[in-house]
Amino acid sequence: EEPTPDTFAPVEVGLHGVTKRFSDQTAVDDITLRVHEGEFFSVLGPSGCGKTTLLRMVAGFEHPDAGRIELDGVDMVGVPPYRRDVNTVFQSYALFPHMSVWDNVAYGVKRKGVKGDALKKTVGEHLELVRLSPFAKRRPAQLSGGQQQRVAIARALAAGPRLLLLDEPLGALDAVLRKELRMELMRIQREVGTTFLYVTHDQEEALVLSHRIAVMNAGKLEQVGYPEDVYERPATRFVAGFIGTSNILDAKVSGVDGHRVELDAPGVTRLRAPLHGEVRHGQRVAATVRPEKVHLYDQAGEPPSGWCVLNGTVRDVVYTGVSTQYVVHIPGGGELVAFVQNTRRIDDAGAPGQPVRLAWDPDFTVLLESADD
Ligand code: ATP
């Protein structure tokens, strides 16, 4: 008989102080986080930061040295992988090469004892879900990489897991296919509602796909938040640098004016940021601003009053299609990058060697700990 729908109910994942060591190295270092039921949750970080190890512990292939993993509040210690209602999709697809697409998708469903019409229905629905119904009779070798990965996703979901783990599933695909398949993945997850725990080093992928993102570095959690949070309000220098491009200015707090912090930075005429939490007069901080928030004027240009302002000299101009990147040298200071949308004809205001004025709304300045602290 068919399983009742609520056996498929998406699960909540709780990690509490999870730590994993390999000889002298701590691969995962005291991670605490909660993945909500039905959430598309990504773990984002550079190669070697411990993401795969974290995923393998949730799957039950590795065991934490310390801490606790819970699925819907139930401690998973001692629960083997096949009893966790969890399935994994790997970068390598790991399809059965001698079986047809249909048999690959049917594999896990049969193992659950589903037969006859119920089996056909489940397999048919999942082939439909990944839009591969016309390819049911083919062998994996007769499919493109993107199609093979869709079979792997259908196979993993057909078995009815309450949590799907995905380890860089788009990693083996070329850039165009990656973009195509990530839209598919997003649609599939929203359609089935299963909790997805997704591991990637690709920040753009994480921003596009996820309800929430955990940023990891060297085994530790740097920030957990909505895509807009980690991008617009990075909590650490690492997050500011790893996700997108950030300008970082070393600065000192010179005063507080209402809800604004006033700052001094070499070569910068006016630097301000919104006041969040406590700051001390004279405190050294890093002030960051995203390049697309920075506007470019000629030196006679008048930015809106109250904006952050600096004068500099254009060093490099790089045309990238959607935008043009201006690298501006700040006399007595460092460099600042501005991305200017190519929505108007580019004139020669801002050729290398020319003086320019850069300005941005102080709401877009984010203060972080100074590197020296
Ligand atoms: P990548 O994206 O390159 O796969 P990752 O973020 O998934 O990286 P992990 O594979 O989790 O990182 O590895 C984290 C660290 O733990 C690495 O330094 C790795 O060398 C180490 N490590 C992982 N598995 C083992 C193991 N079985 N034995 C010893 N060290 C390991």
From TrEMBL:
Its EC number is 7.6.2.11. The keyword Membrane applies. Keywords: ATP-binding, Cell membrane, Membrane, Nucleotide-binding, Translocase, Transport. It catalyses: ATP + H2O + polyamine-[polyamine-binding protein]Side 1 = ADP + phosphate + polyamineSide 2 + [polyamine-binding protein]Side 1. Residues 13-243 form the ABC transporter domain. GO terms for molecular function: ABC-type polyamine transporter activity; ATP binding; ATP hydrolysis activity. GO terms for cellular component: ATP-binding cassette (ABC) transporter complex. It is an enzyme of class 7 (translocase). Signal peptide: none annotated. Part of the ABC transporter complex PotABCD involved in spermidine/putrescine import. Responsible for energy coupling to the transport system. Belongs to the ABC transporter superfamily. Spermidine/putrescine importer (TC 3.A.1.11.1) family. The complex is composed of two ATP-binding proteins (PotA), two transmembrane proteins (PotB and PotC) and a solute-binding protein (PotD). This is Spermidine/putrescine import ATP-binding protein PotA. It comes from Saccharothrix tamanrassetensis.
